[in-house]
Design goal:
The complex is a heterotrimer of chains A (89), B (238) and C (232). Chain A contains two helices and no strands. By secondary structure, chain A is mainly alpha-helical. Chain B has 238 residues and is mainly alpha-helical. Chain B contains eight helices and no strands. In chain B, 87% of the residues lie in helices and 0% in strands. With 232 residues, chain C is an all-alpha fold. Helices cover 78% and strands 0% of the residues of chain C. The relative contact order of chain C is 0.17. Chains in contact: A-C, B-C. At the A-C interface, helix 1 of A face helix 1, helix 2, helix 3, helix 5 and helix 6 of C.
Amino acid sequence: MFFQDTTPDTSSYMILGYAVFFIATTIYLISFFVRSRNLRQDMSMLESMKPESKVMESKATAGKMTAGKPAKAKTSKPKASASKTKKKK
Amino acid sequence: MASKTLITDNKVKNASFSKAIAAVVWKDLSAEFRSRELFSAMLVFSLLVILIFNFALELDIKTRQSVTAGVLWVTFAFAGTLGLNRSMAVEKDRGCLDGLLLAPVDRAAIYFGKAISNLVFMLIVEAIVLPVYSFLYATNLFQPGLLLVILLGSVGYVAVGTLLASMAVQTRTRDVLLPILLFPVVIPVLIASVKASGGFLSGADFITEIMPWINLLLVYDVIFTAIAFMTFDYVVEE
Amino acid sequence: MQTKPIALKVLDIASVLLLAVATYLALFYAPTEAVMGQVQRVFYFHVPAAWVGLLGFIAAAVAGIVYLVTHDQKWDIIEMAAVEISLVFFFIAIVLGSIWARPIWNTWWTWDPRLTTAAITELIYIAYFMLRAGIEDPDRRARFGAVYTLVGAVSAPITFMVIRLFRTIHPVVIAGGDPNAQGTFAMTGGMQVAFFFGLFTFTVIFIDLFWNRIRLGNLAAKVEQLKLNITN
């Protein structure tokens, strides 16, 4: 294939490759931070809206099955979302 | 006495299962026979695709031979999408799907019914496209081997397509989503069908060059029909 | 949302450190390959990235099946995390593979069965996210996601076998290079160290990202549930 004695200089491609890896990974990690921050903001906003809709919410969750976990729905508690919180590992 | 009732129970269940399938197929075919909307759309579309290929590719005699299989299968794939979309959309729009689901039949029967009627539509379209292509390009496409491949390929395509179309029709994006979902997953069928078709058309050696592709088609058909009818329940439950 | 468990914080730091060491090994410790030159070093991250993609692929398939059986939403969250990570890492693997191919075979794409299958799997993943995006109801979204993951998971290996069969019966001649060359080279001691350490590092990175992504998914599920409760 390469009929030459010296090794070809392909280092620019190597740099390109590693650059792609680190840039892609960094962008992915940043997306984690951004999404996490956005969700936390949404969460605090929704929780501040909760006192007003507490009554509505307890009525809603009393009759509604939460997605995928019908057995675990604690309908007696108004704070249904907090009761679904699982201790993560 | 107990075993006798068990046997008759199974017989009754099997009878109603196949009856249900037949009912769905009959419903679709007779509805289509009356209106012929779906069928004419698929047919016209296929003919247009062949026409476009004629101008897009230089189909002189030499190229034609190597390219016929590919052109045919691209045509079938696109026309098939049209058929699948319309077939499921009609169910949803006219509320037939809900009606079917209320009936006390096994969901799998509904799947097989839809899949068979979709297959019939696709085969009919293919049955018309073949002579048209043969006529336009003076190639004889009526070889038993080719017909076998077209059957196997269509079965695989429709098996997965019916399942995915049932999903796609329930989303916001509907029709647009089906090709996106279907094509990446149906690539083995397309590749194997094109290679096998091409092999038959060019008179290649059966055992070494065509059999592997046919085997692959059979395997794909069996596996995906099984997966489709086992998961169909989850796709249509409310 | 709960604070990060200590184990995860440790894992985060460990991943970064391991990655630093792996990079050093790949770029400096391993000897330069004689025929291909420096670009061969891309291999030390290309294969582990594909490996992570594969891990995610399998995790997604398993999670999908378990979800269909149990209807427990946590498996849907796990499935989506796995698909996302696999999507990112197969992408990295494909691009790195392309960069590696360019100076050696003078082409950006070689239609190699593994890379082509990875590319098709990427398309399946993108379709997966588009499917989920088009569904409002979380339960239906989870069900459809699981079914499609299962269909994709069975289809991808078959696709790989088909493409490989395609290449065996009809070998593709790649412009300017030996059509049978697979880019193989003999791995000497230093290379093996870099390679296997890379594999180990990326496995740890996978676990770290997977855990983090699942936590993110849990948070998203909670927020969505709150929104649904309030708007009802």
